[in-house]
Amino acid sequence: MFFKILKKSKKTKARWGKIYTARGVINTPCFMPIATRGAVKNLAPSELEGLGAEIILGNTYHLFLRPGEKLVKKAGGLHKFMNWNHPILTDSGGFQVFSLGQKKGETRSPLLNWGRAGLPRSSVKISERGVEFCSPIDGAKHFLTPEKSMQIQLDLGADMIMAFDECTPYPATREYAAESMRITFDWALRCKKYIDKSQIPSSKSQAPNPKLQILNSKLQKKLFKTPFTKGGMGDLTPKYFLFGIIQGSTFKDLREESAKQIVGLDMDGVAIGGVSVGEPQEKMLEALDWVAPFLPEAKPHYLMGVGYPEQIVEAVKRGIDMFDCVIPTRNARHGALFVWSFDFAQDKRRGKNIFKAKNFYNVIHITNKKFTRDFSSVDKTCGCELCRNFSRAYLRHLFITKENLGLRLATIHNLAFYMELMRKIRESI
RNA sequence: GGGCGGAUACCGAAGCAGUCAAACGGGGCAGACUGUAAAUCUGCUGGUUUUUAACCUUCGAAGGUGCAAAUCCUUCUCCGCCCA
Fold first, then answer.
1. In A283-341, where do the E strands start and end?
2. What are phi and psi of A327, to 5 degrees?
3. Is the distance between the Cβ of A234 and the closest atom of strand B smaller than 7 Å?
4. What's the pLDDT tens digit per position in A59-111?
5. Which pLDDT does position A133 carry in this prediction?
6. In this structure, which of A27, A89, A113, A169 has its CB flanked by the most CB atoms within 10 Å?
7. How distant is C1' of B75 from CA of A337, in Å?
8. How far is residue A10's CA from residue A7's CA, in Å, rounded to a whole number?
9. Is the pTM of this model over 0.80?
């Protein structure tokens, strides 16, 4: 994996770059559509490609429970299983264990509970060793450890894998946040150790791929005057790329300490977690500001679970390169569509630089009555399948009548919007 | 012609004397959604207002009993089913 920064903003910490992997190039800042259970809901991989998605996110937790990582491995890995030939990043399952592993009939614990889903955490038992939780599918008990999470992700065959962390809820007490951060660091160490041990030995790295080797040396020459080899970043040999996750909640010193700890592990990328868990946006940006000075310039920075378009813009300004979020896909399914509020190509005053544009988008609820007779397209400036071919009135009709096509078209549109958003961001840097 | 059963808000359907403007579904309207237990969830859905409260009008129609009726009685209208 190479990460090459092509341009840096003079005014902000924003960077435009490219991540080169054995499975393809990722333009950054990038948005990763979420394919939790091995599919971006309602979309085929070919459609994702058509939208310009370069990397998607899969999930350890869900694929572990169903169909099981061993089955995916037997299928030839997640890429082959789901027929997606571009990079995949897998989340470690840390987030899920804390958001949903409760037993049936358990009551809420106001102290431990969090999130709008109101899911109690009391059945999740966190210890130094790992996490015990109950499957929401059949109630079976499972024990997830950093090592197990790593092995699952290796079995899935992801290109980038996330360290197993304790996603600190919001709000959290200082004590909780500190303990959570400590465990996250300890687990990150264990993850790194496990991955280092499991790393594909370069001498044995499958059958040498001549094409890859040529591309490899070309890339090295092109991108770096001196080959960049540290941490295996300097070649395209299949390898597991591990991201550590910074925690520390809303406490400045904890976030700084966590950043130092995680960065100190010298992993392939750095993620900021414990964010977008219900905290106000200012708190999230504040956390980014605290952490920014510690992020290694040469490595990709990934802000987990974020977010709304304006949050992504703000985060890019603070040096973030990678994003993932359920918002575009979930909102699409719920009939909430992202629409540009003006034409960037036409409106010279507002449209040039997305960093300067204010209120650059709106969200419309397509099921609203006012769209019943609206035969215009959802977004005139959008070139997606929905906007090219169908009207708001038709999409509304599909939603009202619960026709599956509506979900698909809406998902395509919202992802197209996010892809376009990232393109505009890159162009603005 | 005779007998039985039914008629409740946009639809379906509970309620069968007071705590009923009336449960529950569906439909409709609006909103929420941030490392996806999420094609989900929440609120509203007779009217008006000073909208965590008050008043008015509603349970096929018209009368009646009773302090009080969607609930009991009488007649009528319509709809099922059964017998001639």
1. 301-303, 322-324, 336-340
2. -50, -55
3. no
4. 999 999 999 999 999 999 999 999 999 999 999 999 987 676 444 333 333 23
5. 86
6. A89
7. 60
8. 9
9. yes
